[in-house]
Amino acid sequence: MLSSEDNDLLTQTGPGTPGGNMMRRYWQPVALAEELPTGGAPKAVRILGEDLALFRDEQGRPGLLGIHCAHRAADLSYGRIEDGGLRCLYHGWLYDVTGNCLEQPGEPAGSKFKEKVHQLSYPCVDFGGLVLAYMGPDGPPLPPNYEFLTLPDTSRFVAKFHHDCNYLQGNEGNIDPQHLSFLHRMLDAGDRPEPVEGSDETPNAYFGADATPTIEVEETDFGLRIFAARRDGPDAEYVRISNFIYPNIAAFPGRYPTGYGVNWHVPIDDTHHWKFSFTFDRSGPLDQSIPASQWLHEVENYHHTRELGNRYEQDRDEMNARTFIGLGRNFQLHDKWATEGPGPIQDRATEHLGYTDKAIAAERRILLRAVRTVAEGGEAPHVVRDEQANRFEHLGAFGEMVPVGTDWDAIWRRRLTT
Amino acid sequence: MWVPRDDDSCWAWDVCFNEVTPMSDELKQGLKEFRGYNTFDPKTFFKYANLGNMWYQDRELMKTESWSGIKGLFIQDNAVQESMGSVVDRTIEHLGTTDVAIIAARRLYIKAARELVEQGIEPPGVWEQKDYEYIRSEAFLQPATAAWQEQRPLDERFVAGREARP
């Protein structure tokens, strides 16, 4: 349960807000790579409550500018990409990817007015199948070398999904291990027939068998490490390790045992967000059509066709024998239902958190601490500016069957590369 | 002519006329297409090309026949004007040499509004009906060294400072 002041600190991420100042210390995705091909059109994007024009210049460099032309505020996302930058349609003012004004055709020859005009711009990079932007002060930190971003594109599948609610609701759904026993539960075998490492049973069987996992949380440099253990008889337990990563990312065991899933919840504004979802297989190229067939089912132009307006097309017959919730088998849709339910901005003053919300309580504590640290002029946690520090072998998610009594920290330490 | 409907919407009136020659049907049809008259629902006046569909901007067309990729003079104006936002924030502008008329017009409007409210002075441009006939707008070629103010002097009716009607 959060007071309304604390809720505002985490949910309000527009320019000048304490939450927004904290979020802006980190690189954030503004688009999938596929949305910004060379030679393609500029895109109007809204991120963290700011309206911006994203484009790729003729040299292939991504640029992110304030959407309103510095002249008289026309919309640059309609502009022509030519002559070294983006040219506004109204009077032809031309800007490069860093916001320098290169030409003002109507001004007299020799005029220096263009040197006095600088369009708002944020640095961008292509990384990990995304276009990332840094909207904070002091120059950008290093883009983080998370495994899911650095591995080859052929080993990764990434998609994005629009949500009609605040980003924090989506963020918190990822670090809530117990909902797997309910929300995503398939009453039949579902689409994950592979057994858990060290066992003959599927993950789905474990979620169904044990709805009260033991949950432990430890704080790390990157955020939180979360353990959820489900018993299999008196001697063995299925342990899942997931991560919360500052400020809006979660990693959790996914489809591929030699990989994991990631959700990254990026505010559009305070009542909408984009969820970027990744799955990857470090053992080699993956067949993109397999995750696509589940996640992109009933999704058009990055929006689910099932939504609040049609009550997510819940099917009560399906609830009898096939799925617990009657919303099909696209887990993305299940999460959308759950996260939009509280409304556009969840009022956390009326919650009743229980045992299974341990990780959420911890996440709120560390995020509020980060907001306050930044507000007081301090450094945001887990912002990497040193090449030596830009490695995260200790960050990752997986599930494993272990004997009861195993030290859970030993489970992930065993997997560290030297 | 731009007539406020409320603070974030307006009606735009576009009038083309020829004092000398009646307008043929072909000419009218050509004007409709060029200016973009036939692009709204005749019952609701709702524009087919609008903010929701980015005024049908066509990037292929931009490479060949249309600099903006948007068809229709009026539609092109709509696009740059409406995409500024429903009430543009003028505090973020950087006006240049080509904006001198806009700057002058804003001064006139603000002065007229203040004088009306504070002193009850009637705004300029309110005349006897017959005077409006003498307002002219034209385009012409002149020698490069000529002064356009002398080539087409302003009718004395409209010289600033003319007294308002009692």
Structure characterization notes:
Chain A has 418 residues and is of the alpha+beta class. Chain A has helices spanning 4-11, 18-23, 147-150, 167-173, 203-209, 289-295, 318-321, 331-340, 358-375, 408-413, and strands at 28-32, 43-47, 50-56, 62-66, 80-82, 85-87, 94-95, 101-103, 121-122, 124-127, 130-133, 156-163, 214-219, 223-232, 236-245, 249-252, 261-269, 272-280, 299-300, 303-304, 398-403. Chain A starts with a helix and ends in a 5-residue tail after the last helix. The model of chain A has no long low-confidence stretch (mean pLDDT 93). A two-stranded antiparallel ribbon of chain B has the order 1-2. In chain B, a hairpin with a 2-residue loop joins strand 1 and strand 2. The chains are: A alpha+beta (418), B mainly alpha (166). The A-B interface holds A 41, 68, 70-75, 77-78, 80, 89-91, 104, 106-108, 111, 113, 116-117 and B 54, 57, 59, 62, 67-70, 76, 79-81, 83-85, 88-90, 92-99.
**Largest beta-sheet characterization of chain A:** 8 strands, antiparallel
Strand content of chain B: 5-15%
Number of helices of chain B: 5
Q: Give the quaternary arrangement of the chains.
A: heterodimer
**What percentage of residues of chain A falls in helices of 4 or more residues?**
10-25%
